[in-house]
Design goal:
alpha+beta, eight-stranded antiparallel beta sheet, six-stranded mixed beta sheet, 9 helices, 30% strand
Length: 385
């Protein structure tokens, strides 16, 4: 694995106001062992098929969903597929995997490590949250017959730690605000670190546009873009009236990435509660999105994602934290799938501009990073053996 970044040299600066993941660790997950991947505002995983690009993004998304409070079984419907192929069971026939990350923010770097047992039963068997060399939360499976783990969190009061049971199918870090009162400085530090981790993980939007589903007219509804961008026309209808400035940027991006002239991107109601999207070619010519190529549709959808935010995308950010203190992270596996070199370059340049502003981050996987690796600010993680 090689890592490169063309970001400007870092200057000594204060801690970031917005929490963001700076490292993904796969100690044992699918094809990865003892792997550490740096994450910048714009990170692209590249490498041949089978090198583990999708697995890395899948692990990141799993941490995000656990941070949002999802149950383990929802996050890992096929947990055995996450176990390294050559991992041997122990004397009790147990096998599992381990993932983790680091999130930097107002509290400084906070590390999370999670050990998951996949066989014979799916459960979290260990978790550790640390910051500044101090273990703030640690859990361990003490009694396999009970569906709980024994947890100990930092107190720094009359006793150094407080102990109690936590369920073995949820991330303990996400449950701490329900269990820790915050009476001591130590407990307040635990809560602040846990909040930083959860805020960064919850603000994740996994996106994989499906051109086949985007071609049809869609019903008007809540106007939040689905993971597969099935309701693209509906979201275009909503966003056009909400923010003319950003919509103008979208039109400019579409003009750069689609074939033929483009003067506008439109959404047209059909009178039966449905809406369809079109490209205005000028001179009265309009092209229904159903006639565009797969690459053009994926390019348009991804450009829209980068130019919007949590209020438009189907994501559940931390409602108790002001939006100005959160950063949305877009996960895009197969970012360049169906795109030609020109489209991929335009999309990455757009991503670089948006990520530089600080309100959005992008972690994507591409088959070939050569056309985009020269863009300033891109962290390229090359998984080529």
């Amino acid at each position: 694995m090689t890592v490169s970044s063309l970001a400007a040299p870092a200057q000594a600066e204060a801690r970031p106001d917005r929490p963001g993941a700076t490292e993904l660790r796969l100690a044992a997950f699918a094809a990865h062992r003892r792997a550490r991947f740096p994450l910048g505002p714009l990170t692209l995983f590249t490498g041949p098929s089978g090198s583990g690009k999708t697995a890395a993004l899948r692990a990141y998304e799993a941490l995000a969903r656990l941070g949002g409070g999802a149950a383990l079984g929802e996050v890992f419907p096929d947990p055995v597929a996450c176990v390294p192929e050559r991992a041997r069971p122990d004397a009790q026939r147990r096998r599992g995997f381990r993932i983790g990350c680091t999130v930097d923010g107002p509290e400084g770097p906070v590390r999370l490590e999670v050990a998951v047992q996949a066989e014979p039963e799916l459960r979290i068997v260990g978790e550790r949250l640390t910051a500044g060399g101090v273990t703030l939360l640690e859990t361990a499976l003490r009694d396999p017959g009970r569906r709980v783990v024994q947890a100990a969190w930092h107190t720094a009061g009359s006793s150094p730690v407080t102990r109690g049971p936590l369920p073995d199918d949820r991330l303990g870090t996400a449950l701490l605000p329900l269990r820790v009162a915050g009476r001591t400085d130590g407990e307040r530090r635990v809560l602040a670190a846990a909040e930083q981790m959860v805020v960064a993980l919850r603000s994740v939007y996994a996106c994989d546009p499906s051109p086949r589903r985007m071609r049809a007219a869609t019903p008007l509804g809540a106007g939040r873009l689905l993971r597969g961008c099935d309701n693209l026309a509906e979201v275009l209808w909503r966003t056009r009236s909400e923010c003319g400035h950003r919509y103008a940027h979208l039109v400019t991006a579409v003009r750069a990435g689609c074939a033929g002239p483009v003067t506008d991107v439109l959404a047209e109601p059909l009178g039966d509660g449905m809406v369809r999207a079109l490209l205005d070619r000028g001179d009265g010519v309009r092209t229904h999105l159903g006639l565009l190529g797969d690459g053009e549709l994926r390019y348009l959808a991804l450009a829209l994602v980068l130019l919007t935010g949590p209020g438009v995308l189907e994501v559940d950010p931390a409602g108790e934290v002001p939006a100005a203190l959160q950063t949305l992270t877009v996960l895009a596996d197969g970012l360049d799938r169906g795109l030609d070199v020109r489209q991929a370059g335009e999309l990455v340049r757009l991503a670089a501009r948006m990520c530089e502003r600080g309100h959005i981050r992008l972690v994507g996987a591409v088959g070939d990073a050569v056309p985009v690796c020269e863009e300033p600010g891109v962290t390229v993680v090359d998984l080529t053996p």
